[in-house]
């Protein structure tokens, strides 16, 4: 049993894309001489993941998150680097490897549309050769956990979007994989559903000690599930560590919310005003100025209540990308 | 007359767009012509096998059957380039619910959905069909007068109209049945019957082909013109059926639009 | 091994469950399908009548038998159309199938095999109607019936391999229609789909013997409708087996390179 369950070193995926230009002349020229651009979807990233970790991949669209996941699950061959998952080389796609992983992509469906989920689960059982007793136990456990009793008998097309996502997840986990690759699993779902899925993944991780790699747009997913985040931008790894450390390192600001007893003067003198309405002001100040500014506000204004917070993580990430884009 | 000219200009615009879209992919031309030749070869081999066993089929000689095949390919090309793409798009829009965008335009809905698409390269079938017809006529050693040629073109036009109406009626049922892709398959299968002169089919099948699916009128009747078999009654029947189908298609179209608009409130 | 038997049975049952849901569509599909042999039957019956009742050794009753059995054999040899590969790739279904610890071809074979049970069931009334209209003459021996049952499954597997290989071409290029149409045309002429092979010139029959096509149509039909000796049946089944094995080997190789390309380029 390897100590690290996922080992990635200098992983890259480059695409050669032919350059196309408009116009008849350019088109004729391209018949004889093709010029290519190299797109570096993933460019030399490295990380290791221990068994049982729940790691979040953050990054804007096209950052390389899904590409990385596809390389780790064996769907895509890397241009460089030799990733190892569960001790296997994913691109060899050995049966033992595939039986221990699962890839869930938010907007793709594995189950039959017109049949009840139970029938699709039975098919999964046969595909993964799950011993029947174990299969029934696992399946019923999951159905109960996700409150789907009675719904698994209805054709999948008759279920709501959230219910469909739930049965998809069950279908993906029936064979009790040790490694979960979840690509935008909560996309398009409402808040309650998102929370439900998150809790389930957390529960699964707790019970089985499975390793989870999760990509998401929704900070709430990452905040709720992942202690560790890996930030990817333009194919490069920007940050790898605790979520809290991310906040610390990249948030140079604090947000102060002030509830006033009566009236207000101009708060521009204290810092950048983000929001202002009757009785409440929100300003943003550089972190180091916090003690000074708070003292001044308390002295000079009639304050009913004051909160001091880190800016929302989403903002922090955005700033990180903006910063890095400006740098490159 | 003014409204009519507007429609003609609109159709011409769509045609230009359709051609411009396709012409830039010259490779598609070669692929299409290759496919036309494969279809032609298959048809010729079929005829060859038949005529290795007999000299006439249901009274039709070899060059006469060649003419039938030529008309079949020509009409097939017209269907593939102008009729089917429009009907397919209409079907998709009904299923996706995006037909609304089309219906709210200031042009008659039926006309708009019928002229939007044009697959230029499918015309290779028309070209190949025409060449086959010319060769067949030459082999038949008949003299074709101007009058006969005019009647021939007329029957082709009538046939085309009938097939268009029939396709439209078929596609319009998607307003109610939604998933009708199989009906389309059925039609395509039935059109294959047009490869042979419908006179060889037993009566019950012929009635079905002539009235349910105007294949006979589209292919056999023009062939009858070329082979001097056309009776005035048949010609009259062609006019009659074309008119009937146009009226029916219009009626069913309006019915369909009415029910569609009512439903998507 | 047991695992695969379990998978095939489960997948076939799954296919039956799904296709029963699409009863209406399947029915229309089938009715559309019988138009083709009906056209051929009418053409050849017309010729037969003109020549005094038979053509090339086939009476009108024999022709009717040929083309009605044709419809059953056709149901049995329906496989995944190579045009569907483009869909499969674009909609991510191929990626999903690649994540399974099982070669995707098993899914194709198992699913279509299950589907056939539904199709044949729906076919029975159609066959009855056709028989009433066209009055086939059919007198097979016990050997022939037995051989037929094996031959139709053999035909299915031969055709599966042929069309899987064809579909795999989509992994390299999407400009496949000319290649596919050429293949379909060859099949139409050389398989006994258009006309019984015995009505073709001798040299065509000779070539066709060494190609896989006629083992998917003519051979199974003829085992029931013609008068092959048991040794002919066995030889025919042997030829089917040979083509299946060749097909499996070729598909394995092409698949390996195709997936390699697919996984390098991505989707």
Short description:
Helix content of chain A is 37%, strand content 27%.
Instruction: State the major sheet of chain B.
Output: none
Reading the helices and strands of chain C in chain order gives HHEEHHHHHHHHH
Show unreliable segments of chain C: none
The helix-strand sequence of chain B is HHHHHHHHHHHH
Query: In angstroms, what is the radius of gyration of chain C?
Result: 19 Å
Content of β-strand of chain B: under 5%
Largest sheet of chain C: 2 strands, antiparallel
Q: In angstroms, what separates the terminal alpha carbons of chain B?
A: 35 Å
Could you tell me the radius of gyration of chain B in angstroms? 19 Å
Structural class of chain B: mainly alpha
Overall 3D shape of chain B: globular
Alpha plus pi helix count of chain C? 11
Distance from N terminus to C terminus of chain C (CA atoms, Å) equals 33 Å
Number of strands of chain B: 0
Give the strand line-up of the largest sheet of chain C. 1-2
How helix-rich are the residues of chain C, as a percent range?
A: over 70%
Report the largest inter-chain contact: B-C, 35 and 32 residues
Structural domains of chain C: how many: 1
What is the tally of beta strands of chain C?
Answer: 2
What would your notes on this structure say?
The complex is a heterotrimer of chains A (328), B (265) and C (267). Chain A is α/β, with parallel strands linked by helices. Chain A is 37% helix and 27% strand. Chain A has eleven helices and 13 strands. Chain A has helices spanning 24-32, 65-73, 95-98, 117-128, 132-145, 161-173, 191-208, 219-225, 243-250, 290-300, 313-327; strands at residues 6-18, 36-49, 54-58, 84-85, 101-105, 179-183, 211-215, 228-233, 236-242, 253-260, 272-277, 280-286, 303-309. In chain A, the strands form three sheets. A six-stranded mixed sheet of chain A has the order 5-6-7-3-8-9, sandwiched between helices. A four-stranded antiparallel sheet of chain A has the order 11-12-10-13, with helices on one face. In chain A, strands 2-1-4 form a three-stranded antiparallel sheet, with helices on one face. In chain A, helix 4 runs parallel beside helix 6. Chain A starts with 5 loop residues before the first strand and ends with a helix. The longest helix of chain B has 35 residues, at 62-96. In chain C, a hairpin with a 2-residue loop joins strand 1 (54-55) and strand 2 (58-59). The mean pLDDT of chain C is 92. Chains in contact: A-C, B-C. The interface between B and C is medium-sized, with 35 and 32 residues.
């Amino acid at each position: 049993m390897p100590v690290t369950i996922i080992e990635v070193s200098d992983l890259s995926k480059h695409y050669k894309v032919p350059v196309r230009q408009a116009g008849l002349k350019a088109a004729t020229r391209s018949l004889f001489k093709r010029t290519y651009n190299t797109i570096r979807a993933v460019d030399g990233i490295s990380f290791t993941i221990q068994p049982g970790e729940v790691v979040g991949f953050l990054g804007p669209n096209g950052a390389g998150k899904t590409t990385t996941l596809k390389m780790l699950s064996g769907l895509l061959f890397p241009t460089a680097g030799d990733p190892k998952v569960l001790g296997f080389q994913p691109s060899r796609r050995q049966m033992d490897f595939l039986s221990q992983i699962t890839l869930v992509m938010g907007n793709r469906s594995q189950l039959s549309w017109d049949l009840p989920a139970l029938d699709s689960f039975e098919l999964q059982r046969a595909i993964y050769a799950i011993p029947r007793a174990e299969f029934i136990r696992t399946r019923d456990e999951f159905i109960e956990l996700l409150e789907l009793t009675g719904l698994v008998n209805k054709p999948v097309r008759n279920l709501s979007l959230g219910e469909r996502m739930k049965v998809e997840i069950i279908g993906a986990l029936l064979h009790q994989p040790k490694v979960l690759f979840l690509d935008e699993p909560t996309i398009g779902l409402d808040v309650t559903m998102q929370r439900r899925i998150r809790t389930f993944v957390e529960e699964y991780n707790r019970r089985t000690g499975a390793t989870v790699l999760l990509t998401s747009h929704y900070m709430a997913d990452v905040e709720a599930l992942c202690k560790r985040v890996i930030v990817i931008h333009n194919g490069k790894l920007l940050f790898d560590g605790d979520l809290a450390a991310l906040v610390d390192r990249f948030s140079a600001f604090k947000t102060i919310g002030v509830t006033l007893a009566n009236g207000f003067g101009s708060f521009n003198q204290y810092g950048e005003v983000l929001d202002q309405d009757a009785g409440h002001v929100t300003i943003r100040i550089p972190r180091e100025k916090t003690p000074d500014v708070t003292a001044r506000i308390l002295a000079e204004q009639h304050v009913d209540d004051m909160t001091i917070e880190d800016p929302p993580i989403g903002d922090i990430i955005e700033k990180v990308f903006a910063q890095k884009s400006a740098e490159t | 007359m003014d409204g009519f000219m507007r429609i003609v200009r609109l159709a011409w615009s769509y045609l230009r767009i359709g051609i411009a879209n396709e012409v830039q992919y010259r490779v598609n031309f070669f692929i299409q012509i290759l496919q036309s030749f494969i279809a032609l070869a298959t048809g010729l081999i079929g005829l060859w096998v038949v005529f290795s066993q007999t000299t006439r089929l249901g009274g039709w000689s070899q060059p006469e059957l060649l003419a039938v095949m030529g008309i079949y390919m020509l009409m097939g090309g017209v269907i593939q380039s102008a009729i089917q793409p429009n009907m397919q798009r209409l079907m998709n829009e009904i299923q996706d619910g995006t037909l609304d965008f089309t219906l709210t335009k200031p042009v008659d809905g039926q006309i708009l959905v019928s002229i939007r698409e044009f697959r230029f390269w499918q015309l290779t079938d028309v070209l190949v069909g025409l060449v086959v017809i010319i060769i067949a006529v030459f082999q038949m050693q008949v003299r074709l007068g101007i009058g006969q040629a005019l009647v021939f073109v007329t029957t082709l036009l009538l046939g085309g109209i009938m097939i268009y109406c029939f396709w439209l009626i078929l596609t319009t049922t998607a307003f109610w049945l939604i998933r009708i892709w199989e009906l389309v398959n059925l039609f395509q299968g039935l059109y294959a019957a047009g490869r042979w002169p419908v006179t060889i089919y037993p009566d019950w099948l012929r009635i079905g082909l002539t009235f349910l699916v105007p294949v006979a009128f589209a292919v056999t009747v023009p062939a009858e013109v070329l082979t001097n078999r056309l009776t005035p009654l048949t010609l009259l029947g062609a006019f009659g059926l074309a008119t009937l189908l146009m009226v029916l298609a219009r009626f069913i179209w309006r019915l369909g639009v009415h029910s569609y608009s009512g439903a998507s409130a | 091994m047991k695992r695969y038997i379990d998978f095939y049975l489960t997948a076939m049952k799954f296919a039956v469950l799904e296709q029963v849901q699409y009863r209406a569509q399947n029915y229309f599909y089938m009715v559309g399908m019988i138009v083709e042999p009906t056209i051929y039957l009418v053409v050849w019956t017309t010729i037969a009548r003109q020549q005094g009742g038979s053509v090339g050794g086939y009476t009108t009753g024999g022709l009717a038998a040929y083309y009605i059995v044709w419809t059953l054999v056709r149901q049995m040899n329906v496989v995944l159309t190579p045009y569907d590969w483009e869909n499969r790739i674009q909609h991510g279904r191929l990626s999903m199938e690649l994540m399974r610890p099982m070669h995707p071809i098993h899914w194709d074979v198992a699913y279509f095999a299950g589907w056939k049970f539904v199709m044949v069931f729906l076919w029975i009334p159609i066959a009855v109607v056709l028989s009433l209209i066209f009055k086939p003459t059919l007198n097979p021996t016990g050997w022939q019936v037995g051989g037929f049952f094996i031959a139709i499954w053999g035909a299915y597997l031969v055709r599966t391999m042929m069309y899987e290989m064809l579909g795999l071409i989509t992994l390299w290029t999407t400009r496949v229609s000319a290649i596919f149409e050429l293949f379909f045309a060859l099949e139409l002429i050389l398989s006994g789909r258009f006309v019984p092979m015995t009505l073709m010139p001798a040299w065509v029959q000779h070539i066709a013997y060494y190609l896989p096509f006629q083992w998917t149509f003519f051979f199974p039909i003829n085992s029931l409708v013609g008068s092959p000796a048991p040794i002919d049946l066995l030889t025919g089944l042997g030829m089917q087996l040979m083509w299946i094995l060749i097909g499996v080997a070729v598909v394995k190789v092409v698949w390996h390179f195709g997936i390699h390309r697919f996984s390098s380029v991505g989707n």
